[in-house]
Amino acid sequence: MTIRQFITIMVFGTLMCWAGWGVVLWNIDPYEAGLVSFLFFYITLFLALTGTISTTLYTVYHFFGDVQIPVFRYVQRSMGYGLSVASVLVVLLLAQMFSLLNVWTVSLLILIAAFVLSLKLSKRRPYIPTYEA
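The structure corresponding to this sequence follows.
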């Protein structure tokens, strides 16, 4: 799969997720909705946010990146950050739905996200050049 095909599929899928989220938003009454309706709302929002953030970050990395690295690294990095940010935003919305959103829960969520990100960054292996004689 070429990068052009990947970006085309990501943009199309993201637009479909935003359209699905809009359908859920305008056609479902939250006061009469059941569990399935809320699941559709949060799943489509999560996928739409992930696609939007990932494609935006890939574009920024590709056009404004300083270091020339392989394209799959840009995709990998942008997808990871897109999933992370979308997860945090959806968890914040869920906390608001259950009236749990306050300064302490936001601080705890930020600490957990920072901890997970620091674990991810600490697992990177340093580049050690090998010299052949």
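The chain is about 75% helix and 0% strand.
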